[in-house]
Amino acid sequence: xxxxxxxxxxxxxxxxxxxxxxxxxxxxxxxxxxxxxxxxxxxxxxxxxxxxxxxxxxxxxxxxxxxxxxxxxxxxxxxxxxxxxxxxxxxxxxxxxxxxxxxxxxxxxxxxxxxxxxxxxxxxxxxxxxxxxxxxxxxxxxxxxxxxxxxxxxxxxxxxxxxxxxxxxxxxxxxxxxxxxxxxxxxxxxxxxxxxxxxxxxxxxxxxxxxxxxxxxxxxxxxxxxxxxxxxxxxxxxxxxxxxxxxxxxxxxxxxxxxxxxxxxxxxxxxxxxxxxxxxxxxxxxxxxxxxxxxxxxxxxxxxx
Length: 305
Hints:
Distance between the termini: 50 Å
Number of helices: 11
Radius of gyration: 30 Å
Structural class: alpha/beta
Number of strands: 6
Order of helices and strands: EEHHHEHHEEHEHHHHH
Shape: flat
Strand content: 5-15%
């Protein structure tokens, strides 16, 4: 299979200055089912424990009247002379009583995920970030982007001014993607009361090797260290096709991180890129080929029942 070359673009001029071989991880099979499973469980690991008070609804001196009085054996408030006396309390069907199955803080909040599943989900997210159709389907505006995946020279990591970062995005054609006008959608539920009134738009993700200070304060742009890639950033919401901008050094570091079976013995890494079972997906041409038909028995015409 011929090696595919990816252009490396200048951060100040936006022109191609070099070429680099596409890493093996971009050719890994896309398993969206594994990615959604891993994303669902990983997103549970940042939850905070909550529960109702263990004594809520039970702070009453109510006692049951027992049998023989033609009323239910629900605990009732003692006393006389008020409307409250004789009313049911404590149980979940009564006013002011506890809830059914009170929540506890020792619930199982966090979920362990198999390491192989996490790795394959991350490979799926990286591979899908190299497909233009999936990036378009996710809603990114990449009409002016010169190439997918987009690789920028490593000198972009030496800049620390946000003004320079905006100029770099303009030269690369990413400016419209970052600053496009989106309809302001409100968050569903009680998040509106908790400082999450509007939904945030996920723009491009810049992956660096050392630092990316010039992009930190630009709204809509997220940064991520190459050694800290995870599914939550590469596929937010469990949806593949995140638009990623790679620096040259970080893109070069993908092969040591995710080795193929050819260079597995050289790198001795366990993050193997899974091989595809089929190179040609045209099954009808495979089954009708002479190499397979010569080993098949001819069909029986006069079949006796």
